[in-house]
Design goal:
Layout lengths: L5 H17 L5 E4 L19 H7 L6 E4 L2 E5 L3 E2 L5 E3 L5 E5 L7 E18 L2 E3 L7 E14 L2 E3 L4 E6 L14 E2 L2 E3 L2 E3 L14 E6 L1 E2 L2 E3 L2 E4 L9 E5 L5 E2 L2 E3 L2 E4 L14 E9 L1 E4 L2 E3 L1 E7 L8 E4 L2 E3 L11 E8 L1 E4 L2 E3 L3 E7 L4 E8 L2 E5 L9 E7 L6 E8 L2 E4 L7 E4 L7 E8 L2 E3 L4 E4 L6 E7 L2 E3 L15 E6 L8 E3 L2 E4 L36 E11 L2 E12 L1 E9 L6 E7 L3 E2 L3 E7 L6 E10 L4 E3 L3 E4 L7 E8 L4 E8 L3 E9 L4 E9 L2 E8 L6 E8 L4 E9 L1
Amino acid sequence: MKNFSPFVKRSVLTFLLLFPMLFCFATTWYISPGGSDAAGNGTILSPWKTLYKATQTVITAGDIIHVNAGTYTETIQCNLRVGVSIEGVGTSSIIKSSLSGDYVALLVASSPEGTNGNQHISNLKFDGQLLSTYWAIWISGRSNFSMYDCTVVDFKDRGIIFSARDDLLDGPPNSTYATGNSFHDNIVNNCAAYNLSTGVYGRGCLNIGGQDGMLIYNNTITQTQRNEGFNGWPIKYCNDGYLRGVKIYNNILTKEAYGGDYPGQSGWDFCIELFHIQGLEISGNTIQGSIDLNYNTKGTYAYCAWIHGNRLSRAVVNSHYESGIIFEFDTETAIVENNILNNISSGIQFNTRNLTVVSNCTIRKNLISNLGTSSGTGSAGGILIISEGTENAVITNFNVYNNTITSRIPGAPWVGIDFSSINNGSANNINIRNNIVTGFGEAWFKGGNNTNMTNVVVTHNDVNGNANGNLPLFPGGNPGNYTYSNNITVNPLFVGNGNFTLQETSPCINTGVNVGLPYSGSAPDIGYAEYAAGGPVPIKLVDLSVREVNAKNQLDWTTATESNSSHFNIERSSNAQAYQTIGRVNASGFSTTDIRYSFTDVAPLNGINYYRLAMIDKDATLEYSKTVSITNKGNNATSIIYADLSAGTNAAKIVINSATNQTAGLTIIDASGRTVLNYGITLQKGSNTINKGIPGLAKGIYYIRLFTPGETVVKNSFAHE
């Protein structure tokens, strides 16, 4: 073997010292069920055995802990350093917890408020082993932290916690909200408790506090597995909430049907419960259970909450009381539109307390159907002002436009739109227009014993089958400056069989008044669904795209309007001719605003993948979208084709096929895991031959690792003389 001259030795040493500053790459560390915490060094050849060992050892931001397929049982809490990510290979990478004790999490990522985490947890399964461990994951004080493609099951008290504070005390962040966090494409089952014995708390499968702009989407979260009264919520606040600009969309959220005889007896019916919100958007979700929002101000946003395009429904009517959308305490500029609320007791309610102010709220284009009182107590109806003791709420600028509100028989609620709980308060500028309200046992619209209502406009509604002769009921006398005109009392002629769109001969077509919503024909229709000649167009699609994300293909699409829409079937083809259905996403039902959807193909075909959407309405009418395509990287990926290391000539020849023009890093590692040399290289699309001088090598196995911005490739080679 040749020796280097002193000059060459100095040059190589200088290069090695300078290289990290010129071209820096993340390191991937490995754990494996067959690894060893004592003897391993975390390399691909000598992995560790536990996640605890990896999180204790890997401290450099940008590095990745890779969890090989297998089952790991952790006995000590894992603490994840700033900037370090954890990746697995899906549900076959299983982290089980044998930790016990109250308020103990399996994995903690905690820092002072405002720390930039810039990291993720992905493609793993976390198992609390039949509720033996209290919490799964607690992320506190960190921003730009993502968790995706994970499964979390069977933790006792809480599942995942995102908190801006580094504690779980009530209150806003002391200094800085967490920003840029996301939680998406996860499955969470049975990770939220309710303490029935004390009745003082409920927990969440996902808990959020002090978040600014957090995105929560494409998750399936279910809390139905425990005995009656012991199930917490799929999504709940922590740190008393304090949430700004949070978006919760395209999730499937399921809470156990409520079994109490009165609210609070057996927990609550909440599926989402959040406190101190500003600029919250909840859209496109399928929800079984209620949405409960408290202390609702708009701050610098256009609204405190924009709730649209959701479906809140039970497959069958709950035999007990159950709510839909609830606003508690002050509510400033809430917009509730294009939702379907079905098979519940109350649709949209404002629970007021002492001196509560409800201002500038708009409820429009919602279908609130099959409402019933069921057993137990609780205020039932379509749109309700509910007082919790004081009846002195102040309601101003409250708009109810183009909703369809129907009851079920038997069990019809007493009132459709109820303002009877303001005897010591007031209501001013109330507009109720273009609604269909049918089948209520006392009146379709009611005020209080002391009316205390002024500037009330009630026009162009179809009210049919209600008590009090289909007239509003004001026990304390008509409101001041009251307009009641152009209302009809005829059968709206719904399509039927659960479809509340209008037949062609409906008296509600073109008989509404313009309140600023889009319409077709000579005038707006009455009710939630605008009729179009030839029948309603189920879906107006404005965009469909596909992109590669972590070796999976993600489809994203947006609808501008939906009418009577049921679902999307996602179809895939290898030749753009024969298509196969690979997934389904539920549609919103009805919408006049943009709704975003997405679907991930977790196992794309080799080569070109063609995708299209079959857009299906509730009458089984089908329409296809345009076709989009993407080439799977697996068939044309960056790869090391050939490698030759010569210990005799101190030379390396490496042939690399690159999928694109890109910069990369090339590392040579010996069998012990020691890095022999790093190179920064530039690759052209296609074949690249790399000839490099290398330091003297002993004969044996070496590993060549190629880093690109999108992937890491490893190939072994034998160094010969």
